[in-house]
């Protein structure tokens, strides 16, 4: 069952059409990524889904309830984590959580228990009563996400939650998003980091210029482009002897040999790799290194838009 | 040289803030103008007049009241409005002529003019002036009635005659002279009293509220960055102090020159006035440094600065002249640099004093400056290197 | 409503932690009111004492009439306090030092000159700083001399008109009764005494700074990024604005009440009928809230709002006569001051001080409500964008 359904979303600011006919759906337990560079329309798009911004056209439902800026019932189903840290610096983490928890209508009986649980999840149990202005950047980020989790939403919207985060906190954030997917929460995740989208998302939409250019699982997207895995073998001795020997492997599409290494374009590298190594051994060529590069969303994005994903 | 860079950055930052422009330059001039206009000319009691009937005789009464330059005469039409304005202190007194004033006089009656005054005020004393007017008016009609009674002329003509006689009469004259040394100086200009008050008030207010900039610099980490550069702490402190001092001087000079040009305020002896301004700016810089070192939150320092600035100004005689303070409060006032600064300016402006005659005031201000600057820089040094 | 209350509660706890609200809402106005009550001598209610001297070197009937009949009468009415001097220099020295406000000096031969119809003059020497007192002394003398001159004018007019028996006319003229007399209407006091004036003035001046903490916190929510979060929460959007308004209202009202109570007990300010004061306070807080809300919605950042709010608060406070009673200054200024809520609030308190009649505050209260209505209307028109993320 789809938790989120949206379609035909349009939003223009004066002459600039920021979002142009965007639509997709997310099922329970599914993590859906919106991948695109800065200014692609990601934040505008999720602002409409979260009921923060009124769409010029289109329709959003969450759990079957329509979302507009005025719909309070539907919004209660959504957990929203803004891109910028959105917490009160002069209140403690616990107070921040309590305030938003009450705005989201978490019953008083459960509220304190939920706050404890969330503090545990985001690793702030021992600092929960300190004012957040004393927190490190990573702690603030974690609390920023924690507030969105407090009322156990069926849809969690994360807007670039890892921008400007140190690697350690970033990993913690990614891990907790992975866990969320397992608990049945639908997650809408925007990012311009290709690796994050690849790691977290069951399905990814590539968005640019306010339009969704392609959508699907990582595999589907890659196949859309039709690119193959690249295997690079580092060799000692004559590469040409190996090139000749590799001709027997039918899956190989292209071989490029340079001094000390061979680049092989192949379909299904994981299946083919043992045979490649066998051939090398038979040819008497010593392999000093192996690298397998699967085609990534970066290359898909480049293919679709002619632009690189950049910070 | 490095200190100068810090100083000039301080000035640049101040001049970019639109509210500073208002509070530092426009507002003090506005205050000098408004307060000078409202109170600089001394207090003129206001009298409200109603002459409903509109007859000639009534007009003559009103004219005579209006002629008195010791009062400002304002014409009213509704009795209840006039009474309410007297009650509110907008008017000091009111005079209401009956609608049938002329008629009463023409028919030989007694015209009762109503005098509105508050029992709690000194109206009984103002009343004497109106009584004198009534007596003067009365004299004309008494004379006219006598002439009419003798059959020499009709009443209207007789009034005209009596008026001519009254105005031409050698009569009795009161020659008014004044003596004594004026508290505020006799030839004190309309703005001369207020300008030094606002000068001192605002230089301190800006210095104290401006300490917020010092705290911002620390909070934004710019101070740490400055310390990390090959600049000694001493140079940094000198630069920051210079910044506070320069801002105080810019504002002080602006008010001094502006008031002199726009309102013809005379600041007295040039060297004396310059020395006073420098001392006041130094004290202000010191106070600003101290505030900036004591507080860690720029917003709190800003609002605290406004409060302390206004409080010291009120206490030091910058809002209400010290001349009317009770004696003990005058002593307390002299715990503030404001009072000493005002004493200095009053010596220069009203007594025509020179640099040497304000040496005591300059010495006390220098004492304030040394004390505040040393405590301020000492605390700030501790904050910067901690 | 529940959400608005929640937001207000959160804001209030933030404001209590950040000491600025307490500082500007209570400490600053109270401190300044205490200072003002200390430095202003309370002269209201007491008519000032006018000390005059008289030097009678004349000895004739005209001077004697003034010195022996008029002066004792005005002294009995508490208008003047009179001291007789034999020595002119001694009297002048006392005027010079300010012991006397003025001295009347009748020169020898004054009465004779008047009676002969040649006129005459009286010297009145006043102290330079006591011009009002000297003016009163002059008015007393003027009244008497007008009476003296009346006979002369009557005789003169008759002569001009052709009368011949001037002696008989003089006799008639002295018996003629006054044609114009003064009668009194006593007015109440609707002015605040100095202590109450400064207590109320400081309270309403700083009120504008206090209420801005609430309305401006909307801009702060934007700065901290929490505004989108509030917009995303399952609450009515207007309850966000409602929460801010409640915060402002509570802060403003609490500071006013605390100040009224504190100044009443600490320096004896007399605010007047508590119900009337409460009505004025509520209306005053609303008007301040409206004005600060307009400034907040047209500002882009919290800092910009704070800057302009200070400018507006200070300019209105000055014009409204919170530091100096401009309503009693020149007419034009008095008229301009009616453009500020401050002036209406203070006028309402003044009217209230005349008695406990609550109808007295209807006009000021309505004026304050009008400020609120107009500014809130303007804030809604200008503020459509304010709830954008």
Describe this structure in words.
The complex is a heterotrimer of chains A (311), B (386) and C (389). With 311 residues, chain A is of the alpha/beta class. Chain A has helices at residues 42-49, 72-75, 93-103, 108-121, 137-149, 167-182, 194-200, 218-225, 239-245, 269-283, 297-305, and strands at 2-13, 16-27, 31-35, 57-62, 65-66, 78-81, 155-159, 186-191, 203-208, 211-216, 229-236, 252-258, 261-266, 286-293. In chain A, the strands form three sheets. In chain A, strands 6-7-8-3-9-10 form a six-stranded mixed beta sheet, with helices on both faces. Chain A has a four-stranded antiparallel beta sheet with strand order 2-1-4-5. In chain A, strands 12-13-11-14 form a four-stranded antiparallel beta sheet, covered by helices on one side. The two termini of chain A are 35 Å apart. By secondary structure, chain B is α/β, with parallel strands linked by helices. A four-stranded mixed beta sheet of chain B has the order 2-1-3-4, sandwiched between helices. In chain B, helix 3 (56-67) links the parallel strand 1 and strand 2. Classes of the chains: A alpha/beta (311), B alpha/beta (386), C alpha/beta (389). Chains in contact: A-C, B-C. Chains B and C meet through helix 2, helix 4, strand 4, helix 6 and helix 7 of B and helix 2, helix 4, strand 4, helix 6 and helix 7 of C. Strand 4 of chain B pairs parallel with strand 5 (180-187) of chain C, so a sheet runs across the interface.
Observed structural traits:
heterotrimer, B: 386 residues, alpha/beta, 4-stranded mixed sheet, 67% helix, elongated, C: 389 residues, 5 strands, 8% strand
Q: Quick recap of the structure?
A:
The complex is a heterotrimer of chains A (311), B (386) and C (389). Chain B has 386 residues and is an alpha/beta fold.
Q: Helices, strands, pairings?
A:
The complex is a heterotrimer of chains A (311), B (386) and C (389).
Chain A: E1 2-13, E2 16-27, E3 31-35, H1 42-49, E4 57-62, E5 65-66, H2 72-75, E6 78-81, H3 93-103, H4 108-121, H5 137-149, E7 155-159, H6 167-182, E8 186-191, H7 194-200, E9 203-208, E10 211-216, H8 218-225, E11 229-236, H9 239-245, E12 252-258, E13 261-266, H10 269-283, E14 286-293, H11 297-305
Helix pairs in contact in A: 3-4, 8-11
Chain B: H1 2-15, H2 18-40, E1 46-51, H3 56-67, E2 72-75, H4 79-88, E3 93-97, H5 101-106, E4 111-118, H6 123-149, H7 155-168, E5 172-179, H8 194-209, H9 211-219, H10 222-228, H11 233-263, H12 270-294, H13 298-315, H14 327-333, H15 337-349, H16 359-385
Parallel strand pairs in B: 1-2, 1-3
Antiparallel strand pairs in B: 3-4
Helix pairs in contact in B: 1-11, 2-8, 2-11, 3-6, 6-7, 8-11, 8-12, 8-13, 8-15, 9-12, 9-13, 11-12, 11-16, 12-15, 12-16, 15-16
Chain C: H1 2-17, H2 20-39, E1 51-56, H3 61-76, E2 81-85, H4 88-97, E3 102-106, H5 110-115, E4 120-127, H6 131-161, H7 166-175, E5 180-187, H8 194-224, H9 226-232, H10 238-267, H11 274-298, H12 302-319, H13 331-337, H14 341-353, H15 362-382
Parallel strand pairs in C: 1-2, 1-3
Antiparallel strand pairs in C: 3-4
Helix pairs in contact in C: 1-10, 2-8, 2-10, 3-6, 6-7, 8-10, 8-11, 8-12, 8-14, 10-11, 11-12, 11-14, 11-15, 14-15
